[in-house]
Amino acid sequence: MITQKQRRTEKGLCFKHYYKWILCFSLTLYFVASFFVDHDQEDHPSSSLSPSNPLITNPKPKPLPSRAMFESKIHNQRLSFPLQRPNIRTDVFNNLKIYVYDLPSKFNKDWLANERCSNHLFAAEVALHKALLSLDGDVRTEDPYEADFFFVPVYVSCNFSTVNGFPAIGHARSLINEAIDLVSAQHPFWNRTSGSDHVFAATHDFGSCFHTMEDRAIADGVPRMLRNSIVLQTFGVTYKHPCQEVENVVIPPYISPESLRKTQKNIPAAKERDIRVFFRGKMEIHPKNISGRFYSKRIRTEIWRSYGGDRRFYLQRQRFAGYQSEIARSVFCLCPLGWAPWSPRLVESVALGCVPVIIADGIRLPFPSAVRWPDISLTVAERDVGRLGDILEHVAATNLSDIQKNLEDPSVRRALLFNVPPREGDATWQVLEALSKKLNRSVRRKSNDVL
Length: 451
Ligand SMILES: *[C@@H]1O[C@H](CO)[C@@H](O)[C@H](O)[C@H]1NC(C)=O
Ligand SMILES: *[C@@H]1O[C@H](CO)[C@@H](O)[C@H](O)[C@H]1NC(C)=O
Ligand SMILES: *[C@@H]1O[C@H](CO)[C@@H](O)[C@H](O)[C@H]1NC(C)=O
Ligand SMILES: *[C@@H]1O[C@H](CO)[C@@H](O)[C@H](O)[C@H]1NC(C)=O
Ligand SMILES: *[C@@H]1O[C@H](CO)[C@@H](O)[C@H](O)[C@H]1NC(C)=O
Prior knowledge:
Blueprint: H1 2-12, H2 17-27, H3 45-48, H4 67-76, E1 98-100, H5 124-133, E2 149-151, H6 172-186, H7 189-193, E3 198-202, H8 214-220, E4 230-233, E5 247-250, H9 257-265, E6 275-280, E7 289-290, E8 293-294, H10 299-307, E9 313-316, H11 323-328, E10 330-336, H12 344-351, E11 355-359, H13 373-376, E12 378-379, H14 388-397, H15 400-407, H16 410-414, H17 427-436, H18 443-448
Parallel strand pairs: 1-2, 2-3, 3-4, 4-5, 6-9, 6-10, 10-11, 11-12
Antiparallel strand pairs: 7-8
One 2-acetamido-2-deoxy-beta-D-glucopyranose (NAG) binds near residues 184 and 185.
Protein name: Exostosin GT47 domain-containing protein
Organism: Brassica campestris
GO cellular component, one term: Golgi membrane
């Protein structure tokens, strides 16, 4: 029924004014996605989906290292890190074992025919899957009977509309339900726990609600089939919200590490940051009331009105493929909410050393135990956005250099990026770490009493 309705909406877009607004409304967050169209793919699906990856192995289990040892190890290897082979060992995560279902290709690999599928800002669903597959013979197990968790790889964000290029997620619920039907019919593991040890990714606006419009997302809620499971989602708020009424881990949106590397390579080493405050993105001058909501709660409109003529602020409303180089030139990068509170700018700002200025009340940020967000970013309350200029001046005069120094810590940048294969400390690593804290859901642990 949802799919039907969505389909009708898509069709209506071409002719009806009203539907034009639905288009703007539901798809705004996606505009950044098209920036990635022209990026080279770092990894080729065929190779990363191949059955074995000899690079990552650690046949001998080692005694569990203490947390302190583990962290100092990361610290010591920091400088040489990029040259290191990935070495994600099961002992680090309390012998966590994940089984990745091999679903028919229509649930995942077929979508990769479109290169954008693995590069746009919702592509964490793809990157995580590839990363887990590349953990052959280690955290990933091919024996489901020894698994703690079961990853169900369904790509729901790659059905790009032929009309506007934005992902249509109207089919998400039915695709996921179909995958669960299949998995529960063919394997005994789903029924054993009603899916509580099964893991999904939900990487678009409102996470496990699988709808791009918040009122619809809230009305639909988390699909019944998923409610016992663990969802890795980009959406997260600190208050009660129907789209996180499920065991969840907040993950960062996907930014291609390769695109960031390219941007960094093109920055002259000693270049000063000549832009004081940067924002490029949708800033509506007259936002419309859609189902009682205004885009960005009119925060971006207020930024434009208050600072559009302010020389300290470099505000742009048009798309520009080279916007990452602008971030690299900026001191402060605004990360205001859109429809959803989260923003790809957060990851890009951190990765490129621009102090993120988060304007999204109640946002829950990814991996707080790995990324000390208060040390590397600024949070400005939505109601204070009219004082942004003063607030940033104050910070520039007091603790800006402290924040910038904290931002230089490579472990912070690394934690927000998905690599294939994964690297120690990166986003996939953080997901594994988070899952290792949920091992009381593991049937294997309960029966063996190893916890
Ligand atoms: C993809 O989205 C279109 C609408 O844009 C819809 O008609 C089509 O059924 C979707 N494809 C799948 C496989 O769900
Ligand atoms: C799991 O339960 C469903 C619904 O009760 C049933 O159709 C399916 O056959 C069961 N799966 C297995 C492997 O027994
Ligand atoms: C927005 O529209 C809703 C009806 O959809 C209405 O109840 C509400 O008062 C409007 N809000 C504003 C600020 O205009
Ligand atoms: C910097 O100062 C601002 C207030 O001016 C404060 O909110 C913020 O927490 C400080 N950050 C750090 C890392 O000291
Ligand atoms: C697992 O532990 C967490 C607290 O760490 C608790 O909230 C949760 O209810 C436990 N789950 C099960 C299935 O025991």
